[in-house]
Write a structure and sequence with these properties.
The protein is mostly helical. The chain has helices at 4-16, 25-35, 42-53, 62-83, 94-97, 100-118, 127-151, 159-184, 189-216, 219-222, 228-231, 237-243, 248-256, 263-275, 278-298, 304-319, and strands spanning 87-88, 91-92. It has a single domain (4-319), classed as Farnesyl Diphosphate Synthase, CATH 1.10.600.10. Strands 1-2 form a two-stranded antiparallel ribbon. Helix 15 packs antiparallel against helix 16 (304-319). It starts with a helix and ends with a helix.
């Protein structure tokens, strides 16, 4: 197995080597801009690592890895338009730097490019399962995004509904990345499914950690202002848990601050989260899903160094501060 740093460098170099058509510049420049902004490259890293763990070379899955990264960034391009986000990874978002129409069209092009890359398999025998997994996952991501939008207009969202939403919107793509790597390598179904479970559980822990850091993280480390979810009344694990903690006074106080945008609101709701143990509940959920991810990969017959690689990612993910 290679190291995380090796995979990150490999992916970044592959992204840098993409040759875009010269024209129309207005279509391709935003795509190059988006992919050049970096990011964790977690999904392609997992895909390549899964492929190597199952006995094949990283090179054999490079198209699928690049396709998954292209797809992920396409979703971010459109998310930023829907959320009216001004900054992504420390740079102006595409719809700010260009305009909404450009962001939508370039995003559409990224989706098509992603599909073309994913279908470039080393063996035609795996083309159908690879594309079925990719297309199924893509539809699940869209479903998750719709649920997220629906939740903005609901005050009765349950924890189970929220977990299902983040599973669809975030987690299944990590699961698919792992499984795609396994399929390309010719792994047996049980191993591929276990890696899918690993990625999905990792994704749940990852998103819950994001929820936690947005409220309790260090802004100097996290890379953005803390409390954005609170200001926007975003239905997160923390907020839903507080609203459903069984204390009507807490729920009423939080609800009375909906629509308010102030530092006092952030501090007061943070206080309530700590006072009623909501922060602890979130940490416990993060640990639970991270543990589930570890168990999924440890139950496989993968080599010891591969298991260690995936376990290390899960443990560092739940301990991350940005």
């Amino acid at each position: 197995m290679n190291t995380k740093e090796w995979y990150a460098d490999y992916i970044n170099q592959t992204v840098n080597d993409i040759k875009y058509p010269v024209e129309p510049e207005g279509l391709y420049a935003p795509i190059a801009y988006t992919l050049a902004s970096g990011g964790k490259r977690l999904r392609p890293m997992l895909l390549l690592a899964a492929c190597e763990a199952c006995g094949a070379s990283a090179d054999s899955a490079v198209n699928q890895a690049l396709g998954i990264e292209m797809y992920h960034n396409f979703t971010l391009l459109h998310d930023d338009v829907m959320d009216r986000a001004d900054v992504r990874r420390g740079r102006p978002t595409v719809h700010v730097k260009w305009d909404d129409s450009t962001a939508i069209l370039s995003g559409d092009a990224m989706l098509t490019m992603a599909g073309r890359l994913v279908m470039k398999v080393v063996d035609d025998k795996i083309l159908r399962p690879v594309m079925e997994l990719f297309n199924t996952t893509a539809m699940e991501v869209y479903e998750g995004q719709q649920y997220d939008m629906d939740f903005e207009h609901r005050d009765d969202v349950t924890i189970d509904e929220y977990l299902n939403m983040i599973r669809l919107k975030t987690s299944v793509l990590l699961g698919a990345a792992c499984k795609l790597g396994a399929i390309v390598a010719g792994a047996d179904a049980a191993t591929a499914d276990s890696l899918y479970e690993y990625g999905t559980m990792l994704g749940l822990a990852f998103q819950l950690q994001d929820d936690y850091l947005d409220t309790f993280g260090d802004p100097a480390v996290f890379g953005k202002a803390i409390g954005g979810d609170i200001l926007n009344d975003k239905k997160t694990y923390l907020l839903i848990s507080a609203l459903r903690c069984g204390d009507d006074a807490v729920a009423s106080e939080i609800a009375s601050m909906f629509g308010v945008r102030s530092d006092h609101k952030i501090e007061r709701i943070r206080q309530l989260y700590v006072e009623y143990g909501i922060d602890r509940l979130c940490r416990e959920a993060i640990d639970y899903y991270s543990d589930m991810a570890e168990k999924s990969v440890l139950a496989t017959d993968l080599p010891a160094d591969a298991k260690e690689f995936f376990v290390d990612i899960a443990r560092k993910s739940r301990a991350r501060s940005k």
